[in-house]
Design a protein that fits this description.
The chain folds into 3 domains: 8-48, no CATH class; 51-323 and 336-379, 3-Layer(aba) Sandwich (Alkaline Phosphatase, subunit A); 466-635, Jelly Rolls (Sandwich), CATH 2.60.120. It is built from 11 helices and 27 strands. The protein is of the alpha+beta class. The longest helix has 27 residues, at 256-282.
Amino acid sequence: MRIGEHSIAQESLCADVNPLLPSVGRMQKMKRILASLLCILSVLAVHAVSVPNVVFVISDDQGYGDLGFTGNPVIMSPHLDKLAEESVWLEDFHVAPSCSPTRSSMLTGRWTNRTGVWHTFFARAMMYEDEVTIADHYRAAGYATGMFGKWHLGDHYPYRPQDRGFDETWCIRGGATGVTSDYWDNDYFDDHHFHNGEATPSKGYSTDVFFAQSQNFIRKQVGRKKPFFAWIAPTAAHKPWICPPEYAALYPNHDKNAAAFYGMLSNIDDNIGRLRAFLEELGVADNTLFIFTTDNGSVGPKKFNAGMRGGKISPYEGGHRVPFALHWPAGGYSKHVRVKELTHMVDVLPTLLDLCDVSPSRERPLDGRSFKNLLSGKGDRSFDWEGRVVISDSQRIQVPRKWKDSSVMSGKWRLVKGTELYDIRLDPGQEKDIANEHPDRVTVLREWYEDWWAELEPTFSRTSSVYVGSPETPELKITALQWIDQAPPWNQGIIRRSRLKNGRAGNRRVAPVGKFTGHWAVDVARDGVYAFEVRRWPEESGLKIREGVPALARTPGCLPSYSAVDGTALPIGSATLRINGEDLETIVVSDNDDSIRFTRELTKGSYKFSPYFSINTEHQETELGCYYLCVTFLNP
């Protein structure tokens, strides 16, 4: 039933008080009108109860074993443990092994590789613009939609959360605090976040801020008597491991790294406790469908991993098997029930639409299926769950490679990388490869994968370009994180160091000494004159191109952030505008320049923008890709 509709059965309940029946007197007529109104109000009241709110919490880099409920002897997570005890718990729930891919499959109900998301950069964390999201569906059904925290599916139009169905957004750019596209010098405390696209200062620890902003959103919708869908995605416990000192102090018997990681998780736990209490105070807890899950396996200390072999990025259990709790008292889901069947993040969208009776706003073939019938814990005879096949793979390269870090799963079976076979029920740690003992099972799973790959491979050639010159994007501000064809400097520590010796920046190879090979893929929306402003440092830093910068002061009691390193001064001699592989103009850089500006007339179409700085090193001239670019439409 959609909002505003009512059923034929409910209409029949009111038929005997129809005010159009022959009158036997004014008083009787008034009584019947009143009775009819009361009936209508009762129908609306029943319907109001049947439309649940949705709160979906997805933490970052928290594995299945990073909860007290799952047996971790160290982590203190009393609020999540309580939630699990009052929820349907999916025991065999799987996601992609890393951040962006899991989020795209959750939002679309489709295999992440199909949506164009299989990495965290190379423009492969930007979900194809024609994908339809769960927020699109809920908004079309009359819900208010909000997202708070980590988006990681595109920082520019048309890939931002506000372009993908969300009414209210309060988020970071990029995939973690202090990555290249995040606001400069963010370090988890008093950061700038993007409120509906605008950089906005916040006070306090970022996880606390995201939960607090979600509560502001929820309070507003409850006051408006409007159902809401709130997606809350803290960046914790992604590196850098930084938490308020009082949370690290909860773990005095562990080294600083472990204490910070555990402290981040305990802070999330406290925020979930506060959020649930807040829903109770507002009187909407019973009719709020509350979900907690995580985006991939753990990156923390492997002192406890629930007996599993893998961590984040791994194709083995523990890399992609994660916790999943669903709580909804008004729907009958408030007691601990364990679902043993194999489920996947692609199943979440069809399940939530099914539970909330929300129709798709636009039809799009789904790869997942609703597990609503499993939530009783008694199984579902209407479908062969034991025989279904799902996949999790970790590509993390520019172009997907067949069988790379893949796990093809069906019931108890796991085919890893196309050759290794495990019976997960007999061997949860995946210690014994039994492929030679079950060649028929290997053949079946390989054939499924071959068909899956053949269907998806043609979609891999699409490029998620960003736009400039359209009414929505008269200006484009983009960072090196979105480079294609050259691995980018992915965090602000690498931007600061800019080590060029042997082609290395930080500990990651990002640029060979010599020619800059990367580019930004950009669609120019209309003919006209465009300004190109290139920078080594972001505009908000206020730094000159050739100057260095001291390390960001470390927050007392905390580990260093990505910006807690000195920024190297570079002997940059000039800046060159390169478009589609052609060097069009070079301008000398002086000590007083904070940016270099070019203008160019462009016609509508697709381009590769590759502006770079020239540095005269000891051995040769080096091209350093401009880390920050702003392109502005000037006039037709």
